[in-house]
Amino acid sequence: MSPSPVPPRVVAVVVAYNRAELLAEVLDALGAQRAALAKVVVVDNASTDASADVARAAGELVDLVTLPRNTGGAGGFAAGMAVALADHEPDWLWLMDDDTVPTEGALAELLDAVDGTEHVVAGSRVVWHDGTEHPMNTPREKPFVGKAERIAAARRGGIPIRSTSFVSMLVRADVVREIGLPIADYFIWNDDFEYSTRALRGRRGLHVPASVVVHKTKVLGATDADPGPRFYYEVRNKLWMFRRSQSLGRFEKAVYGASSVRRWIRTFARSADRTVLRDGWRRGYHDGTRTRPRPNAMALAGLGRASDAVQQVEPA
Question: Reduced to 3 states, what is the DSSP secondary structure of residue 200?
């Protein structure tokens, strides 16, 4: 009898900030996965609640990385992924926020879908508390996909994608080492769009509807539903991405750029306080066109172990 194949070594990365009760639920769900995890790296983004205590109480499965300052989702994922690569020798990284509760088979379904294929990224179906599809985390299907790739995806129960969300994104570790980490200076918003399109440029990815996670946001809605002061990050980061990132080709930048403008117009039309959005747009446009994101080694300096890991993964 031939030996059973060794299962891939998967390390989850969870970014936490002041949602201790939800974090406990997430960690319980990760510990109950049908496909066992090798480790869960929890990045506590300078929380002021009991998030760090919750992570410590979860036992040996969890590797807690406590940051002395809030680096946002983008910085948290960059730091956590660096620690996972530097200390835990993963084959795959599974990324999620501290309000993302995976169902018991979520990881197993992702792994089954990519097993033995060329796919380097896989994303879950994201639902809200009531099972409704969550509009905040809708993947972008891959345009102009060839017949062979479409058939290969369908055979795995998946859909070819061009981008996906950090709310349950499985990414192959060797690809992360090749393309680098998420850009920490994005702080929030569009970091996963930039990173997933960077990982998938010239590579294959899957949306896997059989893998389900529950995104326990307070309300059901997309990020363009009256974002308030955070609109600054939407504008600045999109401009950084379209002007500085190599994650998209020229034609894609034109298409997604036009889509972003339409989205900004809808956001203004629906807003209850357009003065705040105008200020966010003005500052975002200024910084998006006149500045650029710093290297991660600079943006994440002074974070101890996390900074050392970033330097190891992305040497200057």
Answer: helix
